[in-house]
Amino acid sequence: MTALVALTIVDVLHTMVALALYEHRIGVVTHDGSGTVEMLDIIVPLRELSAAMFCLLLLTLLTAWAGVANWFTRTRGTEPPVAPAAPVARWRMSAIVAVPLNLIAAVQYLYATANGGAYMRTVQGETTLLLVAASVALVITTTAGIQVVRRTAESQHAAGAGATTA
Questions:
Q1: How far apart are CA 156 and CA 138, in angstroms?
Q2: What is the mean pLDDT of residues 28-55?
Q3: Mean pLDDT of 78-107
Q4: Among 72, 119, 127, 163, which residue's CB has the most CB atoms within a 10 Å radius?
Q5: Using only C-alpha atoms, what is the Rg of the chain?
Q6: 3-state secondary structure the chain
Q7: Nearest alpha carbon to residue 23 among 13, 11, 32
Q8: Across residues 28-56, what is the average pLDDT?
Q9: pLDDT (mean) for 104-121
Q10: Are 46 and 40 in contact (CB under 8 A)?
Q11: Which contacts of 114-118 are long-range, i.e. CB under 8 A and separated by 24 or more positions?
Q12: Residue from 67, 55, 46 nearest 142 by CA
């Protein structure tokens, strides 16, 4: 569960850094000089910070995946059922939305940044909305995953307590 919480936090931070780098690259090309982003770039170069955050996001994603896989293998043969159906259904549906949305957002971001500052400004709203929506979808997926893990642990604990009292 800790890995899922970390994934949520890292994804939100990565999205903020990616949007700051996007805004900075537009500002560099069009010379609009938006103050906060330039100040952040002086403190920590956004290009390097974005690369570091992307690596951290991949590492956290792998860790969260390994944690969920480990939880799934440990709870596979347990009775009562793994978890109530509602959180599991929410988890699956949000994952079905989050995965393609994150891929689309990444492709849009890369395409926009490859075509220069004028094009980036033209599609800024669309790109920002996609990146934020992808981050929100991943946050919802990890929150639903945490609910499934927590309910499974509670049902296992209740089943274990019932077996010892019987």
A1: 27
A2: 71
A3: 73
A4: 127
A5: 20
A6: CHHHHHHHHHHHHHHHHHHHHHHHHHHHHHCCCCHHHHHHHHHCCHHHHHHHHHHHHHHHHHHHHHHHHHHHHHHCCCCCCCCCHHHHHHHHHHHHHHHHHHHHHHHHHHHHHHCHHHHHHHCHHHHHHHHHHHHHHHHHHHHHHHHHHHHHHHHHHHHHHHHHHC
A7: 32
A8: 72
A9: 82
A10: yes
A11: 116/29, 117/25, 117/26, 117/28, 117/29, 117/30, 118/29, 118/30
A12: 67
CB distance 8 to 139 below 8 Å: yes
Predicted pLDDT of residue 33: 57
Specify the pLDDT at position 80. Answer: 46
More confident residue, 42 or 133: 133
Mean pLDDT, residues 85-114? 80
Q: What is the mean pLDDT of the chain?
A: 76
Q: What tokens does 42 get?
A: 């002086």
